[in-house]
C-alpha cells in the first residue's frame, strides 16, 4: 500500500508577520533534505557499510553478532529475556511452544533511573540483577528452578568474539559510566547474578536490532532487515561470512550466514555528507561523546526535542526575530527538557488554532505563545520530524542496494517509529525517492516488528543452543557450559 503524505497546512501562514515568515523560510532551507541529497547520502552509506566489514574497518563498526541463522518457527523451550534500553529495563519469560511461530510471554518493566547513567558500573549491574531477582521472586515464588538460559538485549555498540561476550565500544543513549568501555560486560553482569544466587546463565548477548530482525523473521519469511528508531537508531541484517573480510582469518564457511549489527548511528562521523545544521553541531559539541554518533544525533528520539529546543532559544535571542518577547523562558533553557514526545504532541494537534500546542507550551514551559509563534512552532516540529524520517530511509536503502534486494520486508521497532506522527509515511516516501519506484505497491516495506528485544532475544538464545547441539561451535566461548543450558531450556521448568 502506498503511504499517504501527511496533511498540509497551506494557508495557515496568512497572518504570520514577515520577520517570523523569514525565519520559517530559513528553517525550511536548513532542515529540508531533497531527493538528490538523499541519494548522495545513500551512496556514501553503502560504501561505509562495505568499509565496516573490511579488515581495516570504518566509521560504522559493522559488528558480527554470532547469530547465524533465521528461525524456522519450530524452536521450543522456555527462556528469559532481559532488555536494557535507554529508558526502561524489561524482563520477560518467553515460552516457545510446539505450534509453529507461536510464543507465550510474561513480562515486567522497570524504570532505568537517570542517575545510573552516570554512576558506577557496580551500581548499574547491581540494579539490573536486582530487577531480575524481583522478577524471579514474583513469578516463581518458592519454586526450585534449574539454570535458566537468558538472552540479554544490550543495545549499545559491542565487539563480540563470542555470542555470550561483548566488549563495549562506547556508551550511547546518554550513558556515561566510567570503566566499562573497552571491557567485556558479561563477567560483571554474571557475577552480580551469582552474588544473588540466581539460577540464570547468559546464553546470548543480543543487540536490539538483531533481536528485531530475528523476531520479525519468526513470523515473516520475507524479513531481511531489523531497525530500531527510538531513543537511538540502528539496524541489523544477515550477511554471508564470505563478504566479511575481517573474519577471513577464522576460515569459516563463506556461505554461512552471520547477522551484522551495523551500529549505523556512527555513520558519517567524518562529516562528509550529512546536512548538519548549526544546531546539530551544538548538540554534538555538548554531548558526552563529541564527534561520535553523528547520524543518530540527527534522527534519534533522544535528540529531536533538543534540536527543537535549541532552535527556539536561538530565535528568542535573535534581534531580527524575537519570539516569546518579554516572557521568562528559563524552563526552555534547560538542556534536554523536551523529548520527541513533546514534538509528537505538537504534530498531533488537530485544531486549526493550535490550541493544544498553546496549552502544551503554557503547562510545560510557562510560555504563552501567540498564534504566529504557534505556526512557527508547528512548522519547526514538522521539519525536524520529517528530516529524521527521511534520513532514516537512507540506511535502509543502502543495505538493500548493497545486498541487491529489490523486494523485501524491514522490521522496525522503537518509540519514534511506533508513536511519532507520520514517521512511517515520511520514511516510505523518502525510500520511493531514493530507489526511483513508480509501482503502486512499495517493493520494500518497513513494517512494525514483533517485540525484538524480548521474543528476539529468546529466539537467538534458542537458536544458539540448537546450534551447539548440532556441533557448530563457531562463536561459542564454552560449548559444555552452553549444553548445560540446553538441558534447562528443554525441560521447560520455570
TrEMBL record:
Q: Which residues form the Hexokinase C-terminal domain?
A: 224-463
Provide this UniProt record's keywords sorted from A to Z: ATP-binding, Glycolysis, Kinase, Nucleotide-binding, Transferase
Q: Which reaction does it catalyse?
A: a D-hexose + ATP = a D-hexose 6-phosphate + ADP + H(+); D-fructose + ATP = D-fructose 6-phosphate + ADP + H(+)
Any one Gene Ontology molecular-function term assigned to this protein's record: D-glucose binding
Q: Which InterPro entries match?
A: ATPase_NBD, Hexokinase, Hexokinase_BS, Hexokinase_C, Hexokinase_N
The record, for Gene3D superfamilies, names: 1.10.287.1250, 3.30.420.40, 3.40.367.20
- Which biological pathway? Carbohydrate metabolism; hexose metabolism; Carbohydrate degradation; glycolysis; D-glyceraldehyde 3-phosphate and glycerone phosphate from D-glucose: step 1/4
Start and end of every Hexokinase N-terminal domain?
Answer: 24-218
Gene Ontology biological process terms, A to Z: glucose metabolic process; glycolytic process; intracellular glucose homeostasis; mannose metabolic process
Which named protein is this? Phosphotransferase
Supply the source organism for this entry. Answer: Delitschia confertaspora ATCC 74209
Amino acid at each position: 500500500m502506498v503511504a499517504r503524505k501527511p496533511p498540509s497546512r497551506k494557508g495557515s501562514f496568512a497572518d504570520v508577520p514577515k520577520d517570523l515568515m523569514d525565519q520559517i523560510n530559513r528553517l525550511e532551507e536548513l532542515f529540508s533534505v531533497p531527493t538528490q541529497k538523499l541519494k548522495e547520502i545513500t551512496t556514501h552509506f553503502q560504501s561505509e557499510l562495505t568499509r565496516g566489514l573490511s579488515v581495516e574497518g570504518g566509521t560504522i563498526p559493522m559488528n558480527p553478532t554470532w547469530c547465524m541463522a533465521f528461525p524456522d518457527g519450530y524452536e521450543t523451550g522456555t527462556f528469559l529475556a532481559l532488555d536494557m534500553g535507554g529508558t526502561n529495563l524489561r524482563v520477560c519469560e518467553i515460552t516457545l511452544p510446539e505450534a509453529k511461530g507461536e510464543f507465550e510471554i510474561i513480562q515486567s518493566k522497570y524504570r532505568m533511573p537517570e542517575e545510573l547513567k552516570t554512576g558506577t558500573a557496580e551500581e548499574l549491574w547491581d540494579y539490573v540483577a536486582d530487577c531480575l531477582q524481583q522478577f524471579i521472586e514474583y513469578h516463581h515464588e518458592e519454586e526450585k528452578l534449574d539454570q535458566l538460559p537468558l538472552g540479554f538485549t544490550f543495545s549499545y555498540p559491542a565487539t563480540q568474539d563470542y555470542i555470550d561476550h561483548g566488549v563495549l565500544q562506547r556508551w550511547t543513549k546518554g550513558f556515561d559510566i566510567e570503566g566499562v568501555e573497552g571491557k567485556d560486560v558479561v563477567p560483571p553482569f554474571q557475577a552480580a547474578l551469582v552474588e544473588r544466587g540466581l539460577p540464570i546463565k547468559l546464553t546470548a548477548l543480543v543487540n536490539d536490532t538483531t533481536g528485531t530482525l530475528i523476531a520479525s523473521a519468526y513470523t515473516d519469511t520475507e524479513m531481511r532487515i531489523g531497525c530500531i528508531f527510538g531513543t537511538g537508531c540502528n539496524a541489523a541484517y544477515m550477511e554471508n561470512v564470505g563478504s566479511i573480510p575481517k573474519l577471513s582469518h577464522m576460515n569459516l564457511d563463506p556461505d554461512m550466514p552471520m547477522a551484522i549489527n551495523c551500529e549505523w548511528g556512527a555513520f558519517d562521523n567524518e562529516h562528509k555528507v550529512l546536512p548538519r545544521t548549526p544546531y546539530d553541531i551544538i548538540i554534538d559539541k555538548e554531548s558526552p561523546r563529541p564527534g561520535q554518533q553523528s547520524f543518530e544525533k540527527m534522527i534519534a528520539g533522544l535528540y529531536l526535542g533538543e534540536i527543537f529546543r535549541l532552535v527556539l532559544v536561538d530565535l528568542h535571542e535573535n534581534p531580527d526575530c524575537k519570539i516569546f518577547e518579554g516572557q521568562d523562558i528559563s524552563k526552555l533553557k534547560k538542556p534536554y527538557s523536551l523529548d520527541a514526545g513533546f514534538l509528537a504532541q505538537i504534530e498531533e494537534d488537530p485544531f486549526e488554532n493550535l490550541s493544544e500546542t498553546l496549552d502544551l507550551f503554557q503547562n510545560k514551559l510557562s510560555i504563552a505563545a501567540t498564534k504566529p509563534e504557534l505556526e512557527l512552532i508547528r512548522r519547526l516540529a514538522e521539519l525536524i520530524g520529517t528530516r529524521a524520517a527521511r534520513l532514516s530511509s537512507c540506511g535502509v536503502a543502502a543495505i538493500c542496494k548493497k545486498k541487491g534486494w529489490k523486494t523485501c520486508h524491514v522490521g522496525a521497532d522503537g518509540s519514534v517509529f511506533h508513536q511519532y506522527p507520520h514517521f512511517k509515511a515520511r520514511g516510505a516516501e523518502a525510500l520511493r525517492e531514493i530507489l526511483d519506484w513508480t509501482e503502486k505497491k512499495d517493493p520494500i516495506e518497513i513494517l512494525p516488528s514483533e517485540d525484538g528485544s524480548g521474543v528476539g532475544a529468546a529466539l537467538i538464545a534458542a537458536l544458539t543452543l540448537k546450534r551447539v547441539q548440532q556441533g557448530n561451535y563457531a562463536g561459542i566461548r564454552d560449548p559444555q557450559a552452553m549444553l548445560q543450558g540446553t538441558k534447562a531450556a528443554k525441560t521447560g521448568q520455570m
